Amino acid sequence: MTAVKNVLDRVLAWCCIVLFAALVLDVGWQVFARQVLDSPSGWSEELAKYLFIWLGLLGGAWVFGERGHVAADLAVQRMPEKAQRVTAVLVHLSTLTFAALTLIWGGYQVVQLTWDQTLTGLPLNVGWMYLALPICGVITAFYSIYHMIAISKGDEVAIDAEAETALS
């Protein structure tokens, strides 16, 4: 399972890099076309929206996989280690539930509703934009399960106190 996580981490990192570079180029073109050529580009605005949504959701899933999200865990840090583990597993179980119900199931429903809607600026349908929801939901669910198992087995700490003090 760790090998799958490592591959997924690398794939997500490269996807985010490529999406970010494409977003910078697209917005740069948009500004250049509007300000220098005095001919605004309609397609670049639509593309920027797609790129931004995919980048935000994939980046969020990647950061979650690295356990890099901001956490208000002061009270949990003061608990005994076993209580920290239980709390961490419950947090990941809550995240798994959110990913399954909202991102995967809800995202799938939205994709079905919007798959036939077309855009004027791009030769894509709106469903492609919302497809990021269930895909990132599956990734987040995988990371939740991975971390629940690792914390339960003791392979990961529940709260990384060293990372917390490094930020202070």
UniProtKB/TrEMBL annotation:
<keyword id="KW-1133">Transmembrane helix</keyword>
<feature type="transmembrane region" description="Helical">
    <location>
        <begin position="47"/>
        <end position="65"/>
    </location>
</feature>
<comment type="similarity">
    <text>Belongs to the TRAP transporter small permease family.</text>
</comment>
<dbReference type="InterPro" id="IPR007387">
    <property type="entry name" value="TRAP_DctQ"/>
</dbReference>
<feature type="transmembrane region" description="Helical">
    <location>
        <begin position="12"/>
        <end position="32"/>
    </location>
</feature>
<keyword id="KW-0472">Membrane</keyword>
<dbReference type="GO" id="GO:0005886">
    <property type="term" value="C:plasma membrane"/>
</dbReference>
<dbReference type="GO" id="GO:0015740">
    <property type="term" value="P:C4-dicarboxylate transport"/>
</dbReference>
<keyword id="KW-0997">Cell inner membrane</keyword>
<feature type="transmembrane region" description="Helical">
    <location>
        <begin position="128"/>
        <end position="146"/>
    </location>
</feature>
<feature type="transmembrane region" description="Helical">
    <location>
        <begin position="86"/>
        <end position="108"/>
    </location>
</feature>
<keyword id="KW-0813">Transport</keyword>
<protein>
    <submittedName>
        <fullName>C4-dicarboxylate ABC transporter permease</fullName>
    </submittedName>
</protein>
<dbReference type="GO" id="GO:0022857">
    <property type="term" value="F:transmembrane transporter activity"/>
</dbReference>
<keyword id="KW-1003">Cell membrane</keyword>
<dbReference type="Pfam" id="PF04290">
    <property type="entry name" value="DctQ"/>
</dbReference>
<keyword id="KW-0812">Transmembrane</keyword>
<feature type="domain" description="Tripartite ATP-independent periplasmic transporters DctQ component">
    <location>
        <begin position="25"/>
        <end position="150"/>
    </location>
</feature>
<dbReference type="InterPro" id="IPR055348">
    <property type="entry name" value="DctQ"/>
</dbReference>
